[in-house]
Amino acid sequence: MAATTAPPTTDDAKTYLSEIMEELNQLESTEPGCEPVSLLTKLSERVEKETEDFHKQDPDPFDDRHPIYIIPNCSFGKFLKVLTKHHSQFLDKVINTYLHSTTNPDDNEISLRSVSARFLLGVMPGLDMTKIFLSNTEAFTLLERWIKTKPEPLCTYATGIYSYLLEHHEICSQRHSESSALVPILLRRLWNLIEPGKYPENEQSETTKCKSQPKQPETTSCNQTDTASNPVKNSSVKKRKLSATEECSKAKKEKHETKTSHDKNQVGNNVGSSIESPLSSPVQKKKKDFISLPMMNEIMDSEVSNSSWVDMMPIVIGCSYSLAPPLSSSVCERYILNFLTPLGEYQDLLSIFLELKALDLVRHYLKKSITNDGLLTFSALRFFASLLCHNKIAAEFVENLGVQRLLSVIRPSMGATGVSICLYYLAYNRDAMDRICQLPSKVLLNLVKYTAWLLECSHESGRCHAALFFSISFQFRIILKLFDQQNALRKLLNVLSTLPIISGDGDINVTDEENQYTYRQAARTTCATLRKYFETHLLIKVKMVKQQLQVQEDTTRHTSQSKVIDCDRENVLEYLDFLLGLEQTYSAIPPSVLVNWHPVQSFMTLDGVKLLLQLIAITCEWSNYNGKAETLRSALDCLAVVTLSTKAQLQLCDTINIPDSSTPETGISILLNVAEGESYTGIEPEPQKSALAVIVNCVCGPQYKFEGTVGRVVNATPQNRSVSKFIDEARRKLWECVKTNNGIKILLHLLTITHPAVHADDLRLLACKALCGLCRCETVKQIASMLPMFNNGQLQALTRQPVMQDRKKQHARFCKYMEELTEQVSGKPSAFRMDLESLRKAHIVSQTVIRYDNRELLQLIHNHLQWSGLHSSAASLAKEASLNTPTTFSPSVLSTPKNLVRHALTGGAGDASTPASRKISFNRGAHAHGSTPALPPHSSVMCTPTQKKMKFRNRLENGQTTEHSSLDIQKYRLSSNGRVTVVEPGLLGADKDSHTPTLNTIVADFLKSQHAHCENPVVTVPEFSLTRSHCCPKPLYRAEAPINIASRYFRRQITPRWGGVGGCARDRQFIYSRFRPSFVFRPPDQENVPYTCCAFMPDDLSLAVGNFQGDITFHSLDTEQDRVIENCANAPIVCLEPSRDGERLLTVAEGVFSNPCTMFNVENMESKFNYRGAYHVEFSKTTQDRVIGTKDSSALIYDAGTGQIIQTLEKVNLAKQYTCNKATYSPNDDLVLSDGLLWDPRASSTEPIHKFDKFNSSMSGIFHPRGTEVIINTEVWDLRNYHLLRTVPYIDQCTLHFNRDSTVMYAAKSLSHLEMEDIDENDDSSPGSTTFLAIDAQNYRPLSVTDTKHKIYDFAADGRDCNLAVIERQQHSDDNNEDERISVCRLYEVGKVRGDDDEEDDFMVEENNDEDDGNDDDDNSSQSSDDMSSHSGDDQMGRFLRRRRDRRRWRRRRRERQRRSGSSGSESGSENEDESHGSGSDDWQDEDVSLSGLSEGSFGQDTSSGGSHGFFDMFE
């Protein structure tokens, strides 16, 4: 045997274990056969001491995690961590070697197997049991044999180890049959520990030998110290230990009896002494067990603090942690109960538990709960909770006054935490709760008091179980009533408010993933309880109101008085709608019916609205938590009920500080972000619907319209009048708050949502209802009336059919709200019904005589026969009708009307070999593959036969007759020249005959439909065509300017100033619909650094271009002198802005981490100022003495002379957070627009003037140069009243530039160099655009679309309206035939079209070929340079000289044109010259701008007074 060592003097677990391991190694080396019994005993004593210290810190008894995660700084957790991490080999040896030792077959307390089992039982909380024991079948077999046959203490050690293993579901399922066989053995053993001799010894293989008194369960004092330092010396140690235990137990018993006899009414210990044990008198009836119970309120009101901590500690936290033999009875009982707990819920073991009276065991421990060890009481209650899964046991327990005994467990204690799970299991059993609700009111009051106290206990599991009990039992009205009486709502909210994830108290445990999960589970449970609480009150309120209104309820939903209706989500939404529209529907209900609702008032008094909003904002940021959606939905459903009160709605407008967030948010903003589902990740549809329900409550409430006068008030008492006025003011505030937080944009987005399809109809319904309420606000109504969604028929398209066909009920309600919405926005009775204008158009269409050429119809029939394979029939038809048919038939004839015209009218002159581009879903049949076989009797091509035989009679050209009905003779007439006339037209769609329609009716309806879509239909129309679309001409008045440019120019002699009304707009249409590419500025060939941006200098004689390397090149437009300034920035330059005097130049570079902005002196290109912190800068518009920069959502105003910041404009809580925010000045420098906020930099106020509504996420907007409008992406806002003037959908996400007079606006979707790196030039779906638009800046009508065929980086317009510079991305082939993408700067001449003399220039610019033209009379230097480039081997020098030659050609031709233009001098000369430029087009008449997807608009009269210069003097 090894000599014993002194206990460690330090608590350092690592040092202590290292010393033990060294001693063990030394022992094994010196005495190879010696057993380390003493070392294992020392380790066991250390583990038991650490366990006791750990439990003194009152950990949650239901928390089965590693102790280091429960209390991070506890020494027990550190000890187990070091043991399992650094000494795993020692543990393996204990499990695989020491436990299987056979040196001491008696298995007494000093055997190696006993001390090993004792040590293993102590360290079980820190072991990964599934990893160690799951596949170790031998260990399970050994433990089972020990439990059955071995004496104490080895039997109890094995039971304890096995109980830990059974807590894992996988092990419990795997060893279910073996563990079930041990249940009767352990139950009998437990009864013998409580009542010796209850079961004979021969029923067990080994009698349980426990040296303590069996009838008096022991509690060992917590300050008791072990006197046995070495239990292996001799047997006297066992006797000495036994005598000490008995002495302590005896003293404890005498003290208890003395106290009980002197103070019989003292609460705490008198309960146990006043109850007669049923075990001592088994002949008594069961219900007499609890007759002598004291009043529950005495127990509930007892003060634990009256007793000393020494006396209360065993009851509160337990003290039987020592596993040294001989074991106390409480330790043996506790491990048996722990073993039975996982098996108690199995149905196949119920008979065993009933036979061996397991419920009587529970009653015994409940009676002794005041004197028993706290750990033992808790274990008994855990076992009882598992038995409550069986309805029979739960019902029997309640019937025998078990609830009263359960409430007698002292609190605070570990037993009280065990009571919480028992109450939860009882509430889960509906039959048991029905019985509990029938108990006396005093018992129910004590039950609610006890559970409400558990909401504030120190253990997280106790609080959660209590909350779950209430969430289930709220459906019983008596429980809900007592809950409100006890003000338990405050305690329930305290569970939520004290969570570290919400309070933000800086607890170090919050960052731990394990603790975060626990806190989130607590929040989830509490929110579910609050949701059930408010939904139950909602149902009670609706029932009470309906009783007042004498509304008969559905008899199928009638329940008993003790229970409240349990409904689903749809019923809750129905009840919310009922209370929300209560005042409008029933005039007898005053407006204050929901103002003083008690549960809502209490909730708001406790600041519950703010608390739930904080939780919602925090929950949205959670990731990898499967209860996120349920937590959000529960919290939002609570708010959906609470916000029926107007006062609660106003609290949503207040700002809320979110933990771990520097920016406060309003409650409305949080709700809208959840409803949108895009601001946060992982938001599911159910929380979106709940958030929309809250928004509906806020915007759809009653409105009384107090505008200076008293509105209509129900029961017009002064109180009701004041309440109504308060509701009206609150409603306007809520509308403004929703509008300010982008509510219009979010709701319109949800209105068109299609995914997920299962929830799309519900989301649409709620969004449409919210918009109906929001559009009652006049400002919102004006904005909505200008949005394209309300004007292009998109809303009507949404009502055609639901997203899911099984959601027709929701879709019908959606259509109802959609009709109401369109009525509010349009101001008409119903936008879905015909208004007066529509009726007028329908009358005109009905009076129109429809005529069309019958030969066109026959040609279509012929083509269809050909396509169907009926070639003989088609040939017969062509021959008889004398049709001009193509020699070769192509299916493409049926594709488009153009092909139809080409084949039918021109005799097939078009290309007939073009393959079909569209698929037609007709079934062609077998005859389509052959010459013309006979049709089968049931071919799918043939129409279904009619039930009634039709007779027709008609006269054809050849005199043949067919039988017709008299009705068709009256309606249709075929003339001798082949024209069909509809003689008796009717209203569109009104002449629906009951019989099968004829071909004439189909064609007539088709032509009527075309005529009905005309903007200005007329009665007298020319003949319709089946191959061309019909459109009635627009009215043209005499005072209007002619459309033709020549006529308009001639009329100026008679009707100055522009040849009539709208002449200036048509001049702009003519000029800015023509752009001619003139020259390309390419990067130097030796570098090929792509260009990124451009800007014209103020003199318009040079062009500044920035490139990818941060260099700036000044290209001269008149001379060959180019100026290159290198290293102006260390990143690609993306913006250049020169000052109007041409002396300063602002540059913006776009880097990965920052955007350096610099001001340069143009003369020497020296850097003057660096605007650090800003990522975009630009000059002020008027004086240019200031520079405005942008940093995130703030605008920084700098002094242009010093470069210092003089003002900062920022409002974090109002910022729109545009991704491409660029602060800018107004044209007169009085206003600043930044991040959707309008500022007055002259004012001293720190608040913005106005906040524009957000309809996009990137473009922050610019000022119109006229100074009265703001353009934010597609929306045009009026600065005078902040109304939405119009929307321009074709400038979406476009960069805008204006011409000199601000009459024309250029737009293009330009991309940065970072975006360009990730796109495919040949992919049409890739971001960016290859076109730029010219738009009339006065009426926003598109003038032209120019396709550059390359992605656009940037573009700029000069100050003379002559040139437009565009940075284009092109592909360039190098010497190795590898495609390299570069960007060039191309100049476009404004108002010019390509002529015959420009073909050579186009070839030179596009191809940049190496061959010389020969017809150009270049100077000698060019010829010599060409020869040198042809014969020398220096390719780079040759390309440079050719580039210089091209530029000389372009400049010479440009000077020649300017000379010819200047020599004419007179107006007529200008006219002739301009006409010569226009001769290149096919027609003198202005071409209509054809833009797919662009809204059509009429030319308006020009009201500008400014003239044009240079090339445009002819239009003055």
Give a quick precis of the structure:
The protein is of the alpha+beta class and 1516 residues long.
Task: Write up what this structure looks like.
About 45% of the residues lie in helices and about 10% in strands. The chain has 56 helices and 35 strands. The strands form ten sheets. It has a four-stranded antiparallel sheet, covered by helices on one side. Helix 36 packs parallel to helix 39 (about 745-750). The model is unreliable at about 1-10, about 200-305, about 550-560, about 705-715, about 885-970, about 985-995, about 1400-1435 and about 1465-1515 (pLDDT under 50).
* N- and C-termini, Cα separation: 120 Å
Strand content: 5-15%
Arithmetic mean of pLDDT = 75
**Low-confidence runs:** 1-10, 202-306, 552-559, 707-715, 887-970, 985-994, 1399-1434, 1464-1516
Largest sheet: 4 strands, antiparallel
Strand order of the largest sheet: 8-35-34-33
List keywords for this structure.
single chain; 1516 residues; alpha+beta; 4-stranded antiparallel sheet; 56 helices; 35 strands; 11% strand; elongated; disordered N terminus
